[in-house]
Design a protein that fits this description.
By secondary structure, the protein is of the alpha+beta class. It starts with 5 loop residues before the first strand and ends in a 5-residue tail after the last helix. The relative contact order is 0.18. It is about 35% helix and about 20% strand. Among the domains are: about 180 residues, FAD/NAD(P)-binding domain; about 110 residues, no CATH class.
């Protein structure tokens, strides 16, 4: 079909998805990745020889990958082993209360009734009905749309979408909206945490982000061997389909000639001809000149950076608290946490802590001895202006341990080889971000329309990734890659082989 291949820069989920989408339609593809492994933010870290997921840990919206793989004649089950979760997450508070959010909505409602009273259970059912409405009438059309301007989206969603959006009162913040459903502040915290899935604050993001509750009710899956298995499986599929994936290959420049991208320069001195380029990086990266001055106009700096994180990957023995695969320990000063991060650019004094216990699921017995643990606390995206010192890292670890102890969990026999990742480290891994892991913060009702689209001002150059429409998260990053491939095919006038 093409004299030169399409070059995809970055083997994150968006880049891998774009490659599969193009290969399934007969387009030659080369994927270039600066790291030694695929996955991008879907990273795997080794601690004492054991692999620990150190990026996304929740797999939802599997239909995105079902549709992608159907083009190749494959299914997810051909690539990875999946187990559907019956408990979405376990939650703990310093007053000793604990709550399991079940995947089955009837079980979830009953559990909420036992936890916070029958009135809260009734309001939970109303909440689920409303978020299902916004997901079906606004969320899905938005995620699939190439043109996300307000005018275009009003035409796409029609009156039903407009009414669904208005019912959420988009001029309010998520926290305020949740207050009409949940009077128990613990439940308000629990469902307000979905804002952080977009790297945002529940006190500043619009209510429609609550649609994550519906997404998780539709299904959360565990991937046997960890999330990174998905990235390695997609890489293998690309090679099976005839594509090329090159690791340890740093791209230093993208060259347009006569107004169209034609070449990619590699740090080794090699230059590759390209029919078109899909750039799977943060949208801010080209704007800073990381890929050459000629393509700076293709990038877009975010109005406000999303959350970063401080993470700890370790082996340890857990005592006194029964962890689940996904467990969240909430801070008593929830608003102060986001005020510190977004208002002051500082680490929160008492951060909510998420733990992924990778050796646990719904059916396995609790591990004996040490187990693989991934800890995450929210942090400001200041990794390009601040270097976190060992003393600051230890202070963060101490505040985290204090919260865990208050909630009833203690750790022992912790690995001395634990791996820590700060906003500074994330900025090194993902340049031009300051460590922001979700692109721009989704603050304000118009923030969704501000994310860059796949098409850039430079013909033949397309963007993909979590900072690009339709946004952050594993399935939405995949959709961005598939959308970039669709735009490229349409603009080139290509049809499937």
């Amino acid at each position: 079909m093409t004299a030169e291949p399409v070059i995809i820069i970055g083997a994150g989920i968006a880049g891998l998805s774009a490659a599969i989408s193009l290969l399934a339609r007969g387009v030659d593809v080369i994927v270039l990745e600066k790291e030694a492994k695929p996955g991008g933010k879907m990273r795997e870290i080794m601690v004492e020889g054991q692999p620990i997921d150190a990026g996304p840990t929740v797999f939802t919206m599997r239909w995105v990958f079902d549709e992608l793989l159907a083009r190749t004649g494959k299914s997810l089950e051909d690539l990875i082993t999946l187990q559907k979760a019956t408990i979405l997450a376990r939650h703990g508070w310093s007053d000793g209360s604990r709550f399991d959010l079940h995947a089955d909505r009837n079980q979830a409602a009953d559990a909420i009734g036992d936890f916070a009273g029958a009135a809260e259970a009734r309001r939970f059912r109303a909440f689920l009905a409303d978020v299902a409405d916004i997901y079906q009438n606004v969320g899905l059309p938005f995620m699939r749309a190439q043109d996300t301007s307000l005018t275009s989206m009003m035409k796409t969603t029609g009156p039903a979408g407009a009414m669904a959006l208005l019912r959420t009162q988009p001029y309010k913040c998520m926290w305020e909206s949740l207050g009409k459903y949940f009077k128990d502040p613990r439940l308000q915290q629990l469902f307000g945490r979905y804002a952080t899935y977009y790297g945002s604050s529940p006190f500043h993001c619009p209510p429609n982000l609550s649609l994550v509750a519906h997404v998780e009710q539709e299904g959360v899956w565990y991937i046997k061997g960890g999330m990174h298995k998905l990235a390695t499986a997609l890489t293998h599929l690309i090679r099976t389909l005839g594509g090329t994936v090159r690791f340890n290959t740093l791209v230093t420049g993208i060259t347009p000639q006569k107004g169209h991208v034609t070449h990619v320069a590699i740090a080794s001195g090699e230059t590759l001809a390209a029919r078109a380029v899909i750039l799977n990086s943060d949208a801010a990266a080209p704007a800073t000149g990381l890929f050459g001055q000629a393509v700076k106009q293709a990038g877009a700096r975010p109005a406000k950076r999303s959350l970063s994180a401080m993470t700890f990957s370790t082996l340890a023995k857990v005592e006194d608290f029964p962890l689940h695969r996904h467990t969240v320990f909430f801070s008593d000063a929830y608003r102060a946490e986001f005020d510190a991060i977004f208002g002051e650019g500082k680490m929160p004094p008492s951060p909510t802590t998420y733990i992924c216990a990778q050796d646990r699921d719904d059916s396995s017995p609790d591990p004996e001895g040490r187990e693989r643990l991934f800890f995450l606390i929210n942090a400001p995206a200041n990794g390009d202006t601040h270097t976190y010192t060992p003393a600051e890292i230890e202070q963060c670890a101490e505040t985290m341990r204090t919260l865990l102890a208050q909630c009833g969990l203690t750790l022992s026999a912790q690995s001395e080889a634990q791996q820590v990742c700060t906003p500074t480290d994330f900025n090194h891994l993902f340049p031009a971000t300051g460590g922001a892991l979700y692109g721009q913060a989704s603050h304000g009702w118009g923030s969704f329309f501000a994310r860059p689209s796949p098409r850039t001002k430079i013909p033949g150059l397309y963007l993909a990734g979590g900072s690009v429409h339709p946004g952050s998260g594993v399935p939405t990053a995949s959709l961005s890659g598939q959308m970039a491939a669709d735009c490229l095919m349409a603009d080139q006038g290509w049809t499937s082989r």
